[in-house]
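User: Hi! I'm working on a homework problem where we have to compare a predicted structure to a textbook description. Could you give me the structure for the chain below?
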Amino acid sequence: MTENDAISILVIEDNQGDFLLIKDYIEEQLADAKIFHSKKYEDAAILLSDTSLPLDVILLDLTLPDHTGELLIKDVVDKRPQTPVIVLTGFADLDFSIRSLTLKISDYLLKDDINAASLYKSIKFNIERKKTNLLLEESEKRYSNLFQLSPQPMWIFDVVNFSFLQVNKAAIEHYQYTEAEFLNMKLIDILADVHDDKDVLVKANEISSREKIYKGRFRHRKKKSGNY
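Assistant: Happy to help. Predicted structure tokens:
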């Protein structure tokens, strides 16, 4: 089945025969795909550096006349970190394929095993996965900004042992403990030195842990001057 998605694909491949085969595979499944071709890294680098050129996926051969291997992968990924890179190679090197995945490529395919269907699936899957990962990163960044930039002291703690897991800047400024000091403390450590307060906190945790709601009024002690 042919899809008419206008996907932009850069194929970095020096072997003309391999490129024509890959091009045929792509066009069999993605009739309206925009295919760009570079035979050398030098030419590809110009396209990769052109921010006005949208690229949805990069298909990368690892043996170019002017660049090869892990350094080639690193340079391509560094120029387009938001674009999935699928490595196409004629060499079945398991150790290298595993190692290359740590260099932030999206997939590693053997040329002898590729057909129109498998290449299409890899392209579509890795484009969608990259989009999902970017959305997650944006969501995490928004959460981090809300947490860190809030003027209200805030923290995240372990509900089992009350250890601090994360504190925001307002908490550090208000309580006068460094971040490292907070992360070596427990929530109970900043309570006023009143035994009942600590018992109430433990009890509140036990009662409300099923509902994930924690309620109570507690006096907190700052690091300096003993103020509450």
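For your comparison, note the following. DSSP finds eight helices and nine strands in the chain. The mean pLDDT is 85. Good luck with the assignment!
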